[in-house]
C-alpha cells in the first residue's frame, strides 16, 4: 500500500487559478479538493496499492481541466518521502525551469506496518 499526503503548493504560476492535485496509479485516479490561489493548502491523503506513482497538478476553471500545469513522477520501493518539497516542471519542455513546488509525504506500507508519524 502506498499512501500519498498532498500537503501544500507554493508559487504555482498563473492568475486566479484553482489548482487540484491528481494522483494516477494503475488506472485509478485520486484527486484533492479544488483550492484557490498560487499557494494552496490541501492536507489530503490518497491510498493506492502499487509501486508506480504519477502526480499531476492541474488548474481548474469552471470544474473543467483548463490547463495542465506541471507533472512530477517517481518510483517508490520500500522508501519514504516525508514532508518534502518537490519541484514542479513541464515534462514536455524541460528547459522551461521551475513551475512551482508541491510539499508531499509518500510511503510504502506492508501488511501490519504502521505509518510514520
From TrEMBL:
<dbReference type="GO" id="GO:0016020">
    <property type="term" value="C:membrane"/>
</dbReference>
<dbReference type="Pfam" id="PF00168">
    <property type="entry name" value="C2"/>
</dbReference>
<feature type="transmembrane region" description="Helical">
    <location>
        <begin position="63"/>
        <end position="82"/>
    </location>
</feature>
<keyword id="KW-0677">Repeat</keyword>
<dbReference type="Pfam" id="PF08151">
    <property type="entry name" value="FerI"/>
</dbReference>
<dbReference type="InterPro" id="IPR037721">
    <property type="entry name" value="Ferlin"/>
</dbReference>
<keyword id="KW-0812">Transmembrane</keyword>
<dbReference type="InterPro" id="IPR000008">
    <property type="entry name" value="C2_dom"/>
</dbReference>
<keyword id="KW-1133">Transmembrane helix</keyword>
<dbReference type="InterPro" id="IPR012968">
    <property type="entry name" value="FerIin_dom"/>
</dbReference>
<keyword id="KW-0472">Membrane</keyword>
<dbReference type="GO" id="GO:0007009">
    <property type="term" value="P:plasma membrane organization"/>
</dbReference>
<feature type="domain" description="FerIin">
    <location>
        <begin position="78"/>
        <end position="117"/>
    </location>
</feature>
<dbReference type="GO" id="GO:0061025">
    <property type="term" value="P:membrane fusion"/>
</dbReference>
<protein>
    <submittedName>
        <fullName>MYOF protein</fullName>
    </submittedName>
</protein>
<feature type="domain" description="C2">
    <location>
        <begin position="1"/>
        <end position="96"/>
    </location>
</feature>
<dbReference type="InterPro" id="IPR035892">
    <property type="entry name" value="C2_domain_sf"/>
</dbReference>
Amino acid at each position: 500500500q502506498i499512501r500519498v499526503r498532498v500537503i501544500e503548493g507554493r508559487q504555482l504560476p498563473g492568475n486566479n487559478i484553482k489548482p487540484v492535485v491528481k494522483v494516477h496509479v494503475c488506472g485509478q485516479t485520486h484527486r484533492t479538493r479544488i483550492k484557490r490561489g498560487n499557494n494552496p493548502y490541501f492536507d489530503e491523503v490518497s491510498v493506492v496499492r502499487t509501486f508506480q506513482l504519477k502526480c499531476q497538478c492541474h488548474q481548474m476553471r469552471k470544474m473543467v481541466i483548463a490547463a495542465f500545469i506541471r507533472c512530477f513522477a517517481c518510483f517508490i520501493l520500500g522508501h519514504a518521502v516525508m514532508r518534502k518539497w518537490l519541484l514542479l516542471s513541464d515534462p514536455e519542455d524541460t528547459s522551461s525551469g521551475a513551475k512551482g513546488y508541491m510539499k508531499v509525504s509518500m510511503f510504502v506500507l506492508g501488511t501490519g506496518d504502521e505509518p510514520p508519524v
